[in-house]
What we know:
alpha+beta, eight-stranded mixed β-sheet, 12 helices
Amino acid sequence: MSPNLTRAEAQQRSRLVTAGSYEILLDLGGRDVPEADTFFRSRTTLHYQGQDDGISHVDLIAEEITELLLDGQTLEVDFDGSRFELPVTPGDHELQVTAVHRYSRSGEGLHRFVDPADDRVYLYTQFEPADARRVFACFDQPDQKATFEFTVIAPESWLVLSNAPAVDPEPVGNGLGRWEFAPTLRMSTYITGLIAGEYHRVTDSHTGAGGEIPLSLVCRRSMIEHLDVDRLLDTTRAGFEVFEKHFGLPYPFTTYDQIFVPEFNAGAMENAGLVTIRDEYLFRSRVTAAAHEGRDNTILHELAHMWFGNLVTMTWWDDLWLNESFAEWASHFCQSEYLDDPERPWVTFCNARKTWAYRQDQLPTTHPIAADMVDLEAVEQNFDGITYAKGASALRQLVAYVGKDNFLAGVRQYFSDHAFANTQLSDLLDALTAASGRDLSDWSRQWLEVSGVSTLRAEFEVDDQGRFTTFAVRQSVPEEFPVLRDHRVAIGLYADRDGVLTRVHRVELDVAGELTEVADLVGVEQPDLVLLNDDDLTYAKVRLDPRSLDTLVQRIGDLDSALARAVCWAAAWDMCRDGE
């Protein structure tokens, strides 16, 4: 069999079995394995409930199974290296699997790194989307939530952390210790996690809405001098305050550790209460403000996942975009809430993340935001600019479309209704519809199920006094994606005031269909610059009229709004790219 897992297989498994709890023993002490530097052992005890008679399967990527018991009786299976069949009958069952696994150097499963600076050993897990099976036997799909009780045997001098609060080891002889962690809250397999090794740890705490939250920062010892504790904790605390205030629920887990790890194959990973972050974010020398802002954004992105993704989790990877898009939007929203300059994070989003989305959405490889994730192989191809940045842009547009207060009210209700459960997109849209009173079914079809970028341009006429006699917004779409979207947009009019181009008039409205009249601008004097998508509320290419473009060519530096400048730069680039 292939290590791939299809959506149909996952759905069939969930009809037959429901995971209840896992007890996982990981022996990292090199005992009873051929080579201690290459292999480790796991023993998984899975308590589950059978719903019906049938045949399902257990996910496990291992070198070999050394013992397999079902309800205390030896189970003979044909193990192909990635899964084995499980006969299912109704009722409660216990499956115990002992296996030998291989350490990873690819950032999949349990990664093992030896620091060339001092030969110290560092281990960490990375399980998204379905690599928990590289460490323990499981039903490795997001809707099979369970509790996890980890026990780890490792050198007694190591630091070992997991999703539950930290514990001290009990000596077991030969320099080894045994860490027994409390059971976790209910979570999906892909957000369980573990680190082990000769790590350095700094502990602190934060008093949140639900009480005291233990915090820690962890890195390898050769990086201690680069661990800028104060700034990292300040950003983390600011995130807790903003998210707890606006999401309406206290931080849902029991501890919050952030571990800077080597050879990480992504930016960071939102394991519940045990976030792993690439240690390139521990800056070795002076860096720009943009680099610090980018790291802060990553920290807040992972923290946002504790609510959206970890507390409430997608049923299947079809909604991966929403998981990542929400965290992408939330991290910028959070910065805009606590920074002295609330506009700056959205300037960065417009200049960097959104341009990534525009580029990828105009390539032959583009796909709808809500992609059809038929299997894990499809999932792994979609951690991209559409899933992250276009999805977040669509959410930013949705906030404008329903209103910020309504959006946050809907999100709060969504978290309250579905805590520790699994959902689909419709569950969130239902909550937002109830909060805002706007039917979002057509919005979802337009924005999430169709690829491509709309183009907006202003069409107007002026009289002899230079005042608009007509004003309309025309929308066009690519021939291959002929769906006209509804947009909530702002139109800003910018004029010279004492040598500065400043906004003198603003209109916000819904644009729908091919042509939308803007009656509120009739009679208004034509300014030096007409800026569609002022404040960057929607996701669309913008065309500039000749006078506005000439103003920008001569005076873009005179614009007093950094966000307006960012939208103008994007518009000018799009016009250049498209030969206009």
